[in-house]
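Justification of resources, computational component.

The compute hours requested in this renewal are based largely on the per-chain cost of generating structure records like the one below. Each record pairs the submitted sequence with a full structure-token output. That output is archived, and it is also reused by downstream analysis tasks.
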Amino acid sequence: MALEETTAKWLLPPTMPSVVILLFLLPVFCSAVEVNCSQPDQPRLLAALSPAFDMSAIRPVENQLTYTNVSVYFTLYGILGVDEKSQLLVTYIWLNYWWKNEFISWDPVQCGTDKISLPKEKFWIPDIVINEFMEENKAPSVPYVYLCNDGTVRDSFPVRVVSSCNLIIYTFPFDIQNCSLTFNSYIYYATEIRVFLGRDADLITEFSKEVMTTMGEWELVDITAKKLVNDDVTGLYTDMLTFYIRVRRRATMYVVNLLLPSCFLITVDLFSFLLPAESTDRSSFKMTLILGYTVFLLIMNNLLPVTGNTIPLINVFFSVCLALMVASLLETILITNLLSNSADFSPVPRWIRILVLNFLGCLVCMPRKPEKPKNSEKRTMSVAAEMKSDEGPEGTGGSAEEEEAVTELKSLSRVLQAIRCEVEQQQNGKQSSEEWIQVGFIIDRLLFGLYIVFISVSFITIIIVWIKSYKQ
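The structure output for this chain reads:
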């Protein structure tokens, strides 16, 4: 115990002056460094700034309860691409932000300059990050910052931003994408660092459009900014500033390479309905069109977007076009079968006669032909009555020659009646065949009308969506 007390008394006197000196100098280190230059040149200024470089590890504020204002803006130099499958936006920006270093200030007249460029490692740098960042920045680094006489530190450097973006490609190729870039500190709360907009969003958009050289199939619509407002009085949240970049796809290439050829093929298939089905092989022509359309879709498949969120409207358009071509081929096969084998079919069912011949026939301006009156039964009854009248009353006798003549007449009347029945059956079969053929023609006219409606609606929709996308 005595040894420990002796050791403590021995160590106390040497450490005591150091502690006292540190307590006196601590307020000095945490206060602003008033730089005094012996001569107005940069070497003297750099030598005078040397004490401030030792405080690069701490946030440069005199009072730790105050927060550091970091102003941020960027210039969009290029839109490198959009990956619909991975939901990524690739841009090249030049990022600018500045903050106040309260430890440094000098007289520009005394030191000969109002700013000086110095290495970044000599200063405290705010850890501002982009939340949507998905890959490492591959742009060249800038190792210097500008230090102004009032303590403002300005940092500028290029960034190749690969950011996540919720792409909505339902209206492809007339889509407009709205992607966000959120700037915030990674570790500091809002009580320590707050992020503000350094330049008006309209000026950012205007200057970006002037300097942009790489856009590819995309063009910049506008850039807007929104400051996140949080009502938490404790400040235990990260202050954020969000930029929204709206880009529009250039649709000319897709219209020329995708929509117009598809519309041309479906129009040719429309005019194929004008070919007479009874004299030409319409099915082979339609089969050739379907084969050509399938090859066209296979070749242009790489131009279509691939995503799992929504199905683009253009894919639905291509599917409907292919379905209409297949339906027209099946309808042509049906009509060919009706024209060739309708005589062997049973009479048209009543529900088909009502639905197709009566209702749909009037709808497509092909009314049903009037039926011929069926007088076969009446004629049969009249013939039977005549035969009975020719036989005469029962019990009346006659000569043998007369009876023989009557018998021959009876046999002749039976033959004529059989011939008449056969002719009537043939006429009924012919009428049934004509009804089946008329059913086929009504279906053909109905599909022709559906083609016209679909093509008209498709053209109007394409024009409206195209105009609407350029008005936004």
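Confidence is low (pLDDT under 50) at residues 1-30, 373-378. The chain has ten helices and twelve strands.
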